Amino acid sequence: MDAPPSDSRRPRPSLRLLPPAGAPQVNQPIPLNAGRPFAPARQDLTETMEKVARGDKQAFSSLYDVLAPMVFGIVLKVVRDRAQSEEVTQEVMIDLWRQAARYRPDAGSVRTWAATLAHRRAVDRVRSAQAATEREHAQAVREHSSAFDEVAEQVEIRLESEQVRRCLRGLTELQRQAVTLAYYQGLTYREVAEALRTPLPTIKTRMRDGLIRLRDCMGVTT
User: Fold this and answer.
1) What is the pLDDT, as a whole number, of residue 13?
2) Which end of the chain is more exposed for a tag (fewer CB within 10 A), N or C?
3) Considering the entire predicted model, what is its pTM?
4) Are 32 and 69 in contact (CB under 8 A)?
5) Computed over its alpha carbons, how large is the radius of gyration of the chain?
6) How far apart are CA 54 and CA 56, in angstroms?
7) Which residues, at least 6 apart from 166, have a Cβ–Cβ distance to it below 8 Å?
């Protein structure tokens, strides 16, 4: 179907907002001062819609003038933003142009069908905006939490290191050397005994006693 028509007999200003990419441009402005002397009857609108379905551009121009104010009013009540409501109204009118062949009179009037499309489009716009806001908020929370966790982790490591050093100072010299070699340098009991030139049973006893004192100093429970 060709692009929606424009009425050449009476010039109209171009819309400030354009329809979505790939959609035909509707050049009529939204007639907000829609105080018309009469509105077409249901049968007239049904016939107009049938003509639109056959690609009648003049029929679509008439349909646009009749329905756009109603559509805009419905959208504005839901979206509550004039600029976005104008944009959504254009999308609804384009939907009417594209889907005209799908209209069935026995399912309801043209006005009811247009109102349904308008409300659906408006709700989708609000939900989309809310989803975008929630995504931005969640991203901000993640970034803040990540930064906080990193700082907290560094603080915790530093505090634990200071506590370990303080507790190590409470051990005997042999206990401190044995624990340091075993747990900070990864030596085995036998390697620790050889490094300190101390009998292996003595090293095992000193390390056991030293670890018990470290556990009590650091408040570790088993």
Assistant:
1) 38
2) C
3) 0.47
4) yes
5) 39
6) 6
7) 217
Q: 7: alpha, beta or left, given left = phi > 0 and alpha = psi -120 to 50? A: beta
Phi, psi of 110 (to 5 degrees): -65, -40
Distances (CA, A) of 85 to 27, 42, 63, 73, 130: 16, 26, 19, 9, 16
Give the mean pLDDT of 135-142. Answer: 70
Give the pLDDT confidence score for residue 154 in this predicted structure. 56
Q: Take residue 137 and report the two structure tokens written for it.
A: 């908020």
| Residue-level length of the chain | 222
Contacts of 111 (CB under 8 A, 6+ apart): 42, 45, 67, 70
Written as six digits, the tokens of 184 are 């900070």
CA 89/CA 83 separation, integer angstroms: 10
Query: Cα separation of 60 and 191, whole Å?
Result: 93
Q: Is the dihedral of CA 15, 85, 123, 43 positive or negative?
A: negative
Chain mean pLDDT for the chain: 76
Other CB atoms within 10 Å distance of the CB of residue 214: 20
> 8 — alpha (psi -120 to 50), left (phi > 0) or beta?
alpha
* Closest by Cα among 201, 211, 199 to 172: 211
